[in-house]
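Annex B.
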Amino acid sequence: MEDEQLEEVLSRTMQSTNSTRYQHLIDKLFSGDAPQLRPWSFYQEPADNKRDRPKRNKFSLVYSLLQQMVVSKLAAIFTRHGASRVEPPLLCPRSSHLYSSPSPYHSS
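EIF-2-alpha kinase GCN2: predicted structure tokens.
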């Protein structure tokens, strides 16, 4: 019974986007800070087969060659279909552990 009530309350809250409840819900959803270890997680290599955790400080020649082969094959496919290579800017998650201010581009 509680699940149905919760769904009904959330449904009503999400329908009225001008209400204070909606604004409070959205503020709470997006006000959380990134956990301390999360900003570094996308710099790690894939998980080891023997253990279900990322490798640490190990250079894998096979992984590097496989990655280069996949990138070159995908680039050839996209180029064949008219794409051109564009280098995007590096995007990092907002974290107080990486930067002195909440955003590296704005000083507070």
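DSSP finds three helices and no strands in the chain. The mean pLDDT is 73. Further annotation is deferred to the next reporting cycle.
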